[in-house]
Write a structure and sequence with these properties.
Largest sheet: 2 strands, antiparallel
Distance between the termini: 96 Å
Number of strands: 4
Structural class: mainly alpha
Length: 241
């Protein structure tokens, strides 16, 4: 009788060990699959970032060479039409909140913010010069930012960079505003080709929503679509200020 009980216990122990081993194997397989999936996502993300940076370098360098006559013409137009420097720089925010000096062709009078400080441009802003209105309408004032892209401060495609003072104000109104800083700022972006320049806090809420949508769904295919849409926007002058 004792031998039967011992034999029964031994059988039960074997069954228990077999079940535990099977369960452990299932957990291990599941964990390995999860780790593999995460590694694949990480590899895809790193590959995308690598290809994107390569395209930024090649694209910005090529555009700087091809558009150099246009940029020289714009520089001459600025110099002839109003006193002051041809280009100016502003502190802007890019990935992870890092500050950098954004370059632009000057489209306003040289002392535009001496008394007001950092303020958003308005429609029919009196500070904008006649020639400046033309280069803003055609987005040609943004061309010097190709240098920022080549340096690595910006990407060709991404959320537009904002000034720290204005970003701080908008963060108080739009809690997700700083979430835009998860990626590099861009020369053009999804919000620019769909919405253009935002008007007021309501416009910025939509802009933030579009920027976050881009960050979530970004891909080389989406970047290509935004690039082609940017050409149409530039040619039409829509959304400019």
């Amino acid at each position: 009788m004792l031998k039967q009980e011992a034999r029964g216990t031994e059988i039960e122990d074997r069954q228990t060990i077999s079940e535990e081993t099977s369960l452990s194997s299932q957990i291990l397989v599941k964990e390995m699959r999860e780790q593999s999936r995460k590694a694949l996502v990480l590899d895809e993300g790193q590959m995308y970032e690598g290809v994107k940076r390569a395209l930024d370098l090649v694209g910005s360098a090529s555009l700087l060479v091809m558009l150099s006559p246009v940029m020289c013409g714009i520089a001459l137009g600025i110099k002839v039409s109003s006193p002051g420097s041809v280009c100016f720089s502003q502190t802007r925010l890019t990935q992870d909140g890092r500050r950098f000096q954004l370059l632009k062709f000057r489209s306003m009078v040289s002392d535009a913010e001496d008394s007001s400080g950092a303020v958003l441009a308005q429609r029919h802003d009196p500070r904008i010069t006649p020639f400046g209105r033309f280069i803003r309408m055609t987005r040609l004032d943004e061309l010097p930012q190709l240098i920022n892209v080549f340096r690595g401060d910006m990407s060709l495609i991404g959320p537009r960079p904002e000034r720290p003072e204005i970003a701080e104000e908008l963060q108080r109104e739009i809690p997700r505003f700083y979430s835009r800083l998860r990626v590099k700022a861009g020369l053009t972006g999804l919000a620019q080709v769909i919405q253009g320049y935002p008007d007021g806090v309501r416009g910025y809420r939509r802009k933030v929503a579009l920027d976050l949508l881009y960050i979530k769904k970004r891909s080389l295919l989406m970047d290509g679509w935004i690039a082609f849409r940017t050409i149409a926007v530039v040619l039409s002058g829509s959304g400019a200020r």
